[in-house]
Design goal:
alpha+beta, 15% helix, elongated, 41% strand, 13 strands
Length: 201
């Protein structure tokens, strides 16, 4: 289901602080026409709903500027949060049409129960949980699933082992470690007991 965001052009001379007091969040759209940008406002409630459904640099949305002749697909490129209040402060969007492949951050989802964890008591160590990739806007995956079922203690997966969807290219070294199964973790208490046992023998 497409996510649509309604916005308005920001009135000239308007002050960001005054806009926020009136329930509007300042925003900018880039990439729609060369180096030009459009200053926008979006209702705070709309922004709150949007942020529950999208991720920065990941989710494609339909941005509609009601009082300007522009509507199209865009990515939320930047989100600024008020340092004290923790509320949205400013948003930046990037229009993707006509720009070819784009760079996005995609979340990694680890599926399955690794043999080394389930049967051998090992620990699944997820080294990275997000990955930067390049792909066409219409091919942006919500997540990339990685099956860890067959991993035993000492096994690992690198970026080169991940089955990426067609048209999606990772922008990191293929040898970079993604996930591994570590040996069982010994607690300090267990380690002390083990030492005492060895000393007694």
């Amino acid at each position: 289901m497409a996510i649509t965001v309604e916005s308005l052009k920001r009135p000239e001379g308007s002050k960001p602080r005054a806009l926020r007091r009136s329930g509007l969040i300042p925003a900018n759209l880039y990439g729609h026409k060369g180096t030009e940008s459009i200053s926008l406002t979006i209702e705070a409630k709309t922004v709150e709903r949007l942020l529950k459904r999208v991720s920065v640099n990941n989710t494609l949305i339909e941005l509609n500027i009601a009082d300007a002749p522009w509507r199209g697909k865009a990515l939320l490129r930047e989100l600024q949060i008020h340092p004290a209040k923790g509320t949205p402060y400013h948003l930046s969007f990037f229009a993707v049409a006509g720009h070819g492949d784009t760079t996005v951050e995609v979340r990694l989802r680890f599926v399955g129960n690794a043999v080394g964890v389930k049967q051998e008591g090992g620990v699944l160590d997820t080294v990275i949980t997000e990955l930067q990739v390049s792909c066409a806007p219409e091919n942006i995956p919500d997540v990339i699933e990685i099956d860890v079922t067959n991993l035993q203690i000492g096994d690992s997966l690198s970026i080169s082992d991940i089955p990426f969807p067609e048209g999606v290219t990772p922008l990191a070294e293929l040898e970079r470690l993604v996930v591994s199964v570590l040996p069982p973790q010994i607690s300090a208490e267990d380690a002390g007991t083990e030492t005492e046992t060895e000393a007694a023998s």
